[in-house]
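TEACHING EXERCISE
Course module: macromolecular assemblies
Task: Read the component lines below, then compare them to the predicted structure of the full complex.
Student: A.B.
Group: 4
Components provided:
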Amino acid sequence: MKTAAIIGGGVIGGGWAARFALNGWNVAVFDPDPQAQRKIGEVMENARRSLPGLTDLAMPEEGALSYHATLEEAVERADLIIESVPERLDLKHNTYARIQAACRGDAIIGSSTSGYKPSQLQQDAADPGQIMVMHPFNPVYLLPLIELVPSGANPADRVERARQMLLSVGLHPLQLRAEIDAHIADRFLEAVWREALWMVRDDIATTGEIDNAIRYGFGLRWAQMGLFETYRIAGGEAGMAHFIEQFGPCLQWPWTRLTDVPELTPELIAKIADQSDAQSGGLSIRELERARDDNLVAILRALKARDWGAGALLNAHDRARAPGEGDIARPLRTVARAVPLDWTDYNGHMNEARYLQVFGDATDRFMEIIGCDADYIAGGQSFFTAETHIRHLAEARAGARIHVDTRCLSGGGKKMHLFHQLFAGENLLATGEHMLIHVSLDTRRATAISDALAGKLDRIVRAHARLPHPEGVGAAVGKKGDAGAAR
Ligand SMILES: NC(=O)c1ccc[n+]([C@@H]2O[C@H](COP(=O)([O-])OP(=O)(O)OC[C@H]3O[C@@H](n4cnc5c(N)ncnc54)[C@H](O)[C@@H]3O)[C@@H](O)[C@H]2O)c1
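Instructor-supplied answer key:
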């Protein structure tokens, strides 16, 4: 088992500690702050609840986390030493001198520095080749990017060993071709940040409006394709070179505060177009557009489930368009929607788990109709599903318009028995039969349906009892018959 030493356990060092420990490395921390142990403990808790769900495999056993009274003790056995002390060059130099006096000769020292070049960090070091930049992004335990920046003083085999260590804990080391102040990503952030400060100062936009300009639009595009692939699509069939020729000159107009732009010579345009071809040329513009759309749907729907950012916008729009409950003498229309792109699987149709999701959504809507809404649930009572039987009768593809009609077969005491029919137009795709138990959320045990719900539920049960008996009620697995009809 490998050991990482974390020197400086603040915002960034704590994130590194969590990334290594959860990936099975032992972690030895040194930080003179008496609060460091508490702070890292809190970061570890956040990491434990979020990181393991990103993998579809079991995580390794968590490594041991130890806190040390001296830097020397923390680094002595480490394979990799991560320096995350405050961003002051003298402090960093001093820290490397102490580390190198105590660490193994084959250990690698990575610095989290946001701004300094490796050659600056290596000045006057006992072994400059041991020190390189490993610039992470907060939270280090979730975001995969590490800017790995060596200088000419780092032997290639050490850089390769560093790269392998970073890969082994799920990071993506992006190795810079040459060192530069503030590496790659922070240069973009600083450009955006500088524009934002001007806009707030000049009352063009508030902080909230600026964040909306990012998170409702280009921020979503950047998240899945970055800058150049996104612009490749914007150039359409005419291509990347055409796109730059068309829009490039406006970079020199005084639109922004950043008007120091490289001249768009034919050589530079050709260089970008060639690199873009190598990066994305394997896919046609239409194929790229479809990949983009699939990605955006997945991201937007994930945000919708979180009711955050652009996802909160989608939810507000849905609420504004939500239909009423309809005529209770008929099966209730509890779902009406299209099959989203991210519900389909390798068979090219709606995945079986999504049938249950549709029926779960239908049950939620039925609960709302009888008064078991968010306020009722916040009051401490709800329904839990005790039993489910789904029959998959036909396929549904992405984009198909589907709806669910719901009957309440019985309801009273502590139970509610629902029968959902999922259709695409007239075509019956599936049925879902569910027994639900009314529960107290305090005791987590069954309790009688409250008077607040019982009246409405009873009216629906009596109205639905007059409807023709639906085919498939009470069917057992593997039996086609209608057990309900035989009752
Ligand atoms: N905050 C970010 O978003 C971010 C992102 C990437 C990289 N970085 C870089 O990470 C480094 C640390 O930044 P941070 O945001 O975690 O700062 P921070 O202030 O949260 O943490 C610094 C920690 O270092 C400790 N410390 C101070 N002197 C020390 C010493 N001599 N030996 C050991 N520990 C010492 C402090 O007690 C503190 O816990 C900086 O180089 C910064 O540029 C920060």
